[in-house]
Amino acid sequence: MGLRLDTMIDSRSSEVPSLPEVRSRGNFAVTPPMNRFFKTMLLAGCAFGGGVAGTLVLNDAERLKAQTSRPAPPPASATAAGSLAIGERFEAVIRQIAPSVVSVEAIKPPAPGKTKPVEESGSGVILRLDGVPGIVVITNNHVVSGARADQITIHLADDKIYRPSKVWADPESDIAALKLEADGIIPAAMSDSDRVREGNWVLAFGSPFGLNRTVTHGIISARDRGQVSLGSTIRIKDFLQTDAAINPGSSGGPLVNLDGEVIGINTAIASHSGSNSGVAFAIPINLVKRVVRQLVDKGSVARGYLGVHLAQTLEASDAIKLGLDRARGALVESVYPETPAAAAGLKGSDVILQVDGVAIRNENHLINLIASLPIGQRVKLQVWRDKRAEMIDATVGDWNKAQTRLKVEK
Description:
- By secondary structure, the protein is α+β, with helices and mostly antiparallel strands.
- The chain contains 8 helices and 26 strands.
């Protein structure tokens, strides 16, 4: 069975019985919410019972050790103290962030070939962003896409229910913001996600399988993950990777550091089965801030582009054939006519190594970097061509205008 990347939503149609199985819709896996959790709860009860039994056994062991002259080894007590400290830290973070976590439900148009609307659910987090008036709930676009504001329901931690007064969405980054008009709302604190490092402890909040207010923990496994496929609409990919358990229904929930600050928005997992396998992805909160500010201010996100079709990866064998000593950079497969790339003289088989002195790791890094630049900015590209490096000047184009032109031409 191949590895699949799933966006974490619960989806159901009133035409189809709610079954605990994964259905694929295009490149998105959609998992119906599990309406009956008896087996799950039984397993959870067994796990909890096992934990209690384990504690009782350990406590008995401690009493036995106290009755002998053998001292307990120092590492054991140090470990216990450390475990207690981290557990208390988790508890404090949960108390701090829980009031800001919400669940989101959306009624979408019927799926192709169906007549009944599709109900989908995910998670979200309440934030107050600089430059954005009032309070917004941040979630994933794939949770609410296709639904109007009056078809979206936000469930707060205190069980109050609201509808958003406005919806902003950016399919290319899979970010959506819901305007929330309510009093006494507690927004979560945010961190600088650029400062996140591998190995940092994190907590993931969400509503997997409809189980609201679920919290799991793990670490940051990697940064700058972009070589993942999440469907044709999601083009801007710059994920934090974590091993915290994330499952269907967790999409849009916050990924939080041990200071109780949001560092990312849970979005997808890599899985053979459609459920958690320890490889999950979250959108960095700094990217969320930039996108939402533009959505609110301008109604859309301005992005730059060059107009090249890039290879998904630069294989080591291809790098060697091209005379490179490492498989880094973005390999140009073709250049679209009447684009900034064509005007700059870029060619197929060029490898873009640097943009204004910034070394390019891969094709996704190049896309994200160019997309973040102001439209009309001049850039210097270091390009590998005919087994030597040369410099090319290019002008960043307007991606939105290019998309409009392509639609008209089609």
